[in-house]
Amino acid sequence: MSPKIKSDIPASADKELANYPEFVRKILFYRNITDADSAEAFLNPEYKPHDPFLMKGMKEAVERLLSAIKNNERITIFSDYDADGIPGAAVMHDFFKKIGYQNFDVYIPNRHSEGFGLNDGAIKEIAGRGAKLIITVDCGIADAKEVKMALSLGVETIVTDHHTPTDGIPKAFAVIDPKQKGCRYPFKELCGAAVAFKFVEACISKLPTFDFGPTKIYPMSEGQEKWFLDMVGIATLSDMVPLVGENRMFARYGLAVLRKSPRSGLLALFSAIRINRRTLSEDDVVFSVSPRLNAASRMGDPMDAFKLLTTKDESEAIRLVKLLESLNNARKGVVAGIIKEIKHLIKERDLNKRKVVVIGNPEWKPSLLGLAAGKIAEELNKPVFLWGRDSETTFKGSCRSGGGINILDLMKKAGDIFIEYGGHSGAGGFSVSFDEIHRLENDLEMAVIDLPAEEKGQSEVADAVLSLPELTDGIFLEIEKLSPFGVGNPKPLFFIEKTTVSEVRRFGKNNAHTALRFQKNDNETVEAISFFTAPEDFGMPVNVGQKVSMFVHIEQSFFRGRSEIRLRIKEVF
Predict the structure, then answer these.
(1) What is the tens place of the pLDDT at every residue in 303-343?
(2) Which listed site, 25, 184, 502, 522, has its alpha carbon 20 to 30 Å from 117?
(3) Which residues contact 252 (CB under 8 A, 6 or more apart)?
(4) Residue-wise over 401-422: b if at least 16 C-beta within 10 A, else e?
(5) What is 350-449's CATH number?
(6) Where are the domains of the chain?
(7) Of the options 1.10.287.40, 3.90.1640.30, 1.10.3720.10, 3.90.230.10, the CATH number for the domain spanning 52-226
(8) DSSP E strand boundaries for 268-408
């Protein structure tokens, strides 16, 4: 096959970005960064958050919350149960603790018995506790009925959310969501925890001038809120929002705070899963931290993840880490079984020919289907919808995007098949009645026909050609300046041509992974690895002495405390 390499950039951009290596110039250009000032802002982002009061509803929300604090009203933080909502709840919790306000509690719904967002049972319980104000985190924009019910019970609601409104705006006391119509906030792609952080940021700015009367409140000093960025960083990376604009700033500075975070729970977690705080990266968050936080709601109680993030008790932190580790291991086994079953059904039913893959099983746990849908969508490069039983009358599922299709637009177009649906361009959730589930596959297949595919990610084409002698610490430092990587800022992909394999070895538990070794020069070798891959899985025989070409990412390994540059294989041919 002929490798696809990004074309050279225009001479004008090449000249404007001349201070950077050639491959960096190409990567910047293909991220629409074409001048020196924009390049500097991207590579070295300053901490300059937008004014939170540009958000619609912010002024009213701040006044209502500060008034509630002044009057010592009972406040309930109600968050989603995932690795966006839970860190967001921790931000609100930490804010109240820092200013010395004690009359609040936290409610995180049970994923299996209550589902996503506000619900009638939760509203009644919260009202019964004496709460006068609910603050939602990462949910609420679709809960008009529940917000109305809360008000009928004497409880007002401030909604902080980042999901796209699909059915109007709830009549809450205030709604803070950058995606609602009429919101002037310049960046629309914040995660839920970041929206909650903006609310906290706005409140902090008003603490010194607000008259709290006899209520004793401790104003936070300027910049103190930056310690909350560890939570915003975890959520931004976990929720797969585009790592551009303000999200890039939150991810970069969030990682910086995580490397210094004093949280007992995080320290215990890092120790247990052998993460070196000093070298912590976005991959550590996405592949190690987030799954353990999410395992709490998928396999147990989401409050355990919240307690891990907020406890100051070292012994409790260690207990919670052990609990989440056991839940995560159980989750891995169940998800692996679901994925295996899905692949068998795809082959048996010849579903590769479909534009949208729709598979369900009443025995599947809906809470685990997002993980499986993401894996299958990545492999098939097309939208995937998976469902399991939610109740006697409804099925609930998760969906993930593929092939450049906006998953939320697809569900909008399919329309009346869903009882409810929501999410964003890359991921979502839905529910369908027992009587309508037979229509789901066909309705989605029809809906996708005229739906335009967005431009495919640049990870499908190599950014540059690289030779092994060019693999140095210097090139990795240049790549690291482009991080953190994720949605909207994929890892640079390199093409290495016709290089002789000097060693093939298996490693890991049950020899599940493969490493290829190459002679870099007379004295050095370099290793290229592929996890959960056998040599025969590369699509061609790979043997010692054979010349292979590869698409690879470059990464830094700290295995056994030793730093070295290695390659992560994407494709061999």
Answers:
(1) 999 999 999 999 999 999 999 999 999 999 999 999 999 99
(2) 184
(3) 45, 483, 484
(4) bbebbbbbbbbebbeebbebbb
(5) 3.10.310.30
(6) 52-226, 350-449, 458-572
(7) 3.90.1640.30
(8) 357-360, 384-389, 394-400
